Amino acid sequence: MDVFDGNSSEHANLPRNMIENSMFEEEPDVVDLAKDSAAFPTFPALDPDEVAYEPCSSRLLVRGLGENDMDEDEEDCESSARLLGMSFMNRSSAHRSTSSPFSRQSPPRTCSRPSARTMVVCVLFLVIVASMTMVLYFLPGCNFTRTGCRKPNKTTPIESIYPLSTNGELFPWAQLRLPLSIRPLSYDLTLNPDLDNMTFTGRIVINMAVLHNRKCIVLHGSNLNITKATFKLGDGQVHDVTVLEFKPKQQLAVKFSEELKAGQHCVLTLDYSAKLSHTYDGFYNSSYSDKDGNKRVLAATQFEPLSARKAFPCFDEPAFKATFLIKIIRKPNYMALSNMPKANSTPLHNGLVQDEFEKTSVNMSTYLLAFIVANFTSNSKNVSETVVSVYSVPEKKEHTYYALDTASKLLKFYNEFFEIDYPLKKLGDYTHTPACLTQFICSFSLHIAICSLYLLSDLVAIPDFLAGAMENWGLITFRETTLLVGKQSSPLEKQVVASVIAHELAHQWFGNLVTMRWWNDLWLNEGFATYMQYMSLQTVLPKLDIGNLFLAVRFRALDKDALNSSHAVSTEVNTAEQVEEMFDSVSYEKGASILLMLNTSLPGDQQFRKGIIQYLKQFSGSNTDTDDLWNSLTQVEVSTQHQNISEMMSSWTSQKGFPLVTISRKGDQVNLTQEHFLLTTDNATHTSSLWNIPVTYVNDSCSLAPECRQVFTLNTKSGTFKLPESVKWLKLNYRNTGFYIVHYGDEGWAALKDALSKNISVLTNDDRASLIHNIFALSRLGRVSFDQVLNVLKCMSKETETSPVTEALLQLNRIYGLLDKRQETNIVSRMKKYILAHFGSLMNKQTWEEEDSVSKQELRSALLQTACSLAEENCTQQAKSLFKTYVESNGTFRIPGDLQQVVFTVAAQSDEDWSTLLSMYHYVTYDAEKRKMLQGLASTQDTRRLVWILNTGLKGDHIQTQELPLVISTVCNGFAGYLFAWDFIQENWDRLIEKFPVGSFAIQSIIKSATSQFSTQAHLDQVQAFFFSLKERGSQMRSVQEALETIRLNQRWMDRNLSTLRNWL
Ligand SMILES: [Zn+2]
Fold first, then answer.
1. pLDDT one-digit tens code per residue, 812-867
2. pLDDT at 547
3. DSSP track, 580-623
4. What's the rounded Cα separation, in Å, for the pair 515 and 722?
5. Ligand 1 centroid distance, CA of 609 (Å)
6. 97-119 b/e (C-beta count within 10 Å ≥ 16 → b)
7. Are the CB atoms for 276 and 284 separated by under 8 Å?
8. What pLDDT score was predicted for residue 383?
9. Catalytic pick from 54, 304, 358, 504?
10. Most CB within 10 Å of its CB: which of 34, 41, 221, 694?
11. How many other C-beta atoms can be found within 10 angstroms of the C-beta atom of residue 709?
């Protein structure tokens, strides 16, 4: 996915895992181990197979006895003996653990053979447990549930190990992750959506292989009403079966009286009905108004991460890959799309039409499946052997050409870069030659033995879509803003579209062809796609000047990862909410940043690429974890001088945060030390984190060209290298390609300031931006005073380049916002003067006409937005006059895309123009412009209007609910709105989490917007009290911890710096 988001609303209100609840009451130390990874975040994540595929308590039991992991074969769906065993051992393990909870966080990955004594203890124990179970089992009324076997006033450890199904029967599975014993091979899915009544019926036929003996099948299903279920084992008879459901975990199960045996094949067929979802996930309905104002409806899907189960029963985890055959029944006036091309259409007797799609030619994860029923039109183009089509609502067909052209170029680039052609093949022609077959099998390991004639890639703009885009294999879905551009669109708007397309196309290899095994390694999908989006665009569309954006993205990733509430790139994920939370800046932006660091630290420019190709080819069609990637990259490493990549990179993926590198010089000695750059130490577990840092540096004798760059590997607490004393200054982290922050000490900073005051061009633009970012970060950390920050800015007063200027503006605006919200009126007005004095002449130099250079557009929109927000006269006058011309031109005059937001924001401050803007908002069709109008409307300082706009966004009629996070963030920027927004969020929390799941990117963004500008104790108390009161409705979210930490930081910064600001400004 790009720009995150979208997914299940159901699990927002889930009761906590029953095991966790009961354990929490009785044995809290056991709970910590099994569930709360955040408590010990610096430990390496457990192997997902170890953690999730068996109840955590049984795992303790087995390990405690010195055994290897329990074999799947030993598991029995209803093994009461095991239930008791688990409960018993939870207690015994609790004794062992109280002294050292950490020891259980990192169990050995391999176990030695058990000793004879252990074996005897084990056997004895099992006998006792079995006997107890038999006795209890035959006691009348005892079923090991909440209702059975309970003594009054005493909670037994037996209850809630296995939960109850909706029909009252015991549900045979208690884990988030499914058992591994049954594997789906293929799905045959028929769907019949009724867009008039917003319901659908479906039939799923799942072919499965039994890998271990089992008496039940457990799979996912959510809010599906199963009307008929049949089962067939091998060549046996088809017979009816009962499907059990456990709603809190969205699981279904079928139990059998006899074991299914390893090696057997079976088929489960389920008929069901359901409602189309009214949120943005699962199989959901969406609507839009056509050019005549008529309401048109459509149905589309968004399955990542946990919502395929809302459309059909399935094994909804990324590692359960299978093939899919999709059939969709529709009215003749609609079209249906799915991952694969349509194979045939059959008219049905009831006047409907059934479209059957080709069976997927590759095994794929359920979250990548997609289907759409709508009235769309398309434009297509052939690229090599791939047909690329871009779909939109008919009115916007002419806005699809840019996407079509860009996708074609990028597809060609990726085909060549990865040396693997676009992976999803169209089936249908089996007349391949043996050579062709061999080649194909090489590329795709074991899954497909077909050489295709056509490849297919559809890109679809959906009017109602929460995430930025979704990489469904062969049917990539987008927001309209991220796919459609008009002829007059500005290069900056094109940059957005091109970036998102580049990201989603990269996923066709990273994520779709090779998929992370579990969501803990989501970064393998998202970090890579994010890195590739910038890398590919630099080559394919250099005019889009994507470098500045990528640099800014890396700065923001550092800012977020400096918090104690951050997490390791590869981290434990044990609940549905934690899965949602993985779609964050760490997985995407830090992931991309460390890949850049790796690529730039390798010798030659092909090393990284070779490793990637090796990885993709080796794991084609299968699932991987982070180590697989590092191992592939290490294997192709040819330089003996270079260190082991696995060793280096695991220090960046297995622990949260990043290092602060401090430099000091004495004579010809340069001393470097590293420490964790941690902004707050609240509740921090103090660890001696070390990173393996490829420290790069340039100096006054050579500082601009890539050849000037020298590398020093710092993998210990401190390190030394020599440099002639004549070197005046050093700049570390050349072009900020490394993921660390540098402190130069008083002397080092002074030398740099001195050099920059004389000639700003002694460093690259990126390096100057990096100095600005680092000095602000150090001030936030408390290592430098704000005086020093202002001094660094002073020596760059002649700065005119985009990256350094935009970074400085962002940092100053952040502080300005905090002071403004604290109503420090005097300092605010002096700060305003300071900003205008520092950037005034550059602001005045900006033009208001169309501008071709992306970099110049970025610069002027940042400068003018600041100028107008500070009510700088010249800026506001220009903006007003441009708006006037625009309104009077009746659609013939267009405001340059990069200036629209400034102009609409200024206009929205007057009553009359706000109303004009609102009426324009309703009829403007071009989505990018519409969003900027919305931001304008939401920036009003009229509180009645603010309340109206927030409520309307929540209702979703005049303003689509997908825009609510944007509305909230815009409202929060303004002085008048930020407290209203905070009240609004508190009052409407339940409705918000109905629309956006707990933990999702939308919720993360809403919390951040609403709280990141608080800096007082009173607000801290309020925020804490509110989120604490939510309990399972959100109090556990990482973003809540981030919010609290950020407020404390703001508070601390104010305490330290207010007096300096009063004196200095
Ligand atoms: Zn993505």
1. 999 999 999 999 999 999 999 999 999 999 999 999 999 989 999 999 999 999 99
2. 96
3. HHTSSHIIIIIHHHHHHHHHHHSSSSSHHHHHHHHHHHHTTTSE
4. 45
5. 20
6. beeeeeebbeeeeeeeebeeeee
7. yes
8. 78
9. 504
10. 221
11. 16
- Helices then strands, counting H and E runs in the chain, come out as 34, 29
Polymer length of the chain: 1065
**CA 308 distance to own-chain centroid:** 17
d(CA 534, ligand 1 centre) in Å: 13
Q: How far apart are CA 1065 and CA 1061, in angstroms?
A: 6
| Long-range CB contact pairs, 1015-1022, < 8 A, 24+ | 1015/818, 1015/821, 1015/822, 1015/1047, 1015/1050, 1015/1051, 1015/1053, 1015/1054, 1016/822, 1016/1051, 1017/1051, 1019/1047, 1020/1044, 1020/1047, 1020/1048, 1020/1051, 1022/982
Could you tell me the distance, in angstroms and rounded to a whole number, from the CA of residue 469 to the centre of ligand 1? Answer: 8
Rounded to the nearest angstrom, the gap between the alpha carbon of residue 401 and the centroid of all alpha carbons in its chain is: 29
Distance 447 CA to ligand 1 centre (A): 24
Distance CA 352, CA 699 (A): 73
Which residues of the chain are modeled with pLDDT < 70? 3-160, 422-456, 637-643, 682-687, 1065
Q: What is the pLDDT of residue 290?
A: 81
* Six token digits for residue 275: 């409602």
What the block records as the tokens of 461 is 């703009």
Which tokens is 715 given?
A: 């993998």
Compute the distance between CA of residue 658 and CA of residue 339 in angstroms, rounded to an integer: 40
Q: How far is the CA of 506 from the centre of ligand 1 (A)?
A: 9
Beta strand residue intervals within 281-357, DSSP E: 282-289, 295-302, 323-330, 335-338, 342-347, 353-357
CA of 588 to the centre of ligand 1 (A): 8
Between CA 1063 and CA 1065 the distance in angstroms is: 6
Distance CA 13, CA 71 (A): 34
Ligand 1 mean position, distance from CA 241 (Å) = 39
- Reduced to 3 states, what is the DSSP secondary structure of residue 236? coil
Task: Tell me the backbone φ, ψ of residue 43, rounded to 5 degrees.
Answer: -85, 150
Handedness of CA 741, 746, 751, 752 (dihedral sign): positive
- CA distances to 185, 598, 696, 854, 1051 from 492, in Å: 45, 29, 32, 6, 36
Q: What are phi and psi of 432, to 5 degrees?
A: -90, 160
**Ligand 1 center from residue 304 Cα (angstroms):** 10
Contact 689, 706 (CB under 8 A): no
Q: Which sign, positive or negative, has the C-alpha torsion 178, 181, 187, 192?
A: negative
Q: Is residue 860 a contact partner of residue 878, using CB atoms and an 8 Å limit?
A: no
d(CA 364, CA 321): 5
pLDDT at residue 98, as a whole number = 31
942 φ, ψ (degrees, to nearest 5): -85, 115
Return the bridge partners of 669, or none.
666, 722
Q: How far apart are CA 734 and CA 915, in angstroms?
A: 50
Q: Which residues pair with residue 711 across a beta bridge?
A: 696
* Residue matched to tokens 């399972």: 1032
How far does residue 441's CA lie from ligand 1's centre (Å)?
A: 27
**pLDDT tens digits, 186-219:** 999 999 999 999 999 999 999 999 999 999 999 9
The three-class DSSP label of residue 644 is: coil
Q: Around Cβ 64, how many Cβ atoms within 10 Å?
A: 17
Q: Is 850 a catalytic residue?
A: no
| 3-class DSSP state of 348 | coil
Reported in sequence order, the residue ranges of 66-213 that DSSP labels E, i.e. its strands, are 182-194, 199-210
8 A C-beta contact, residue 629 and residue 544: no
Expressed in angstroms and rounded, the spacing between residue 425 Cα and the centre of ligand 1 is: 21
Cα(152) to centroid(ligand 1), Å? 53
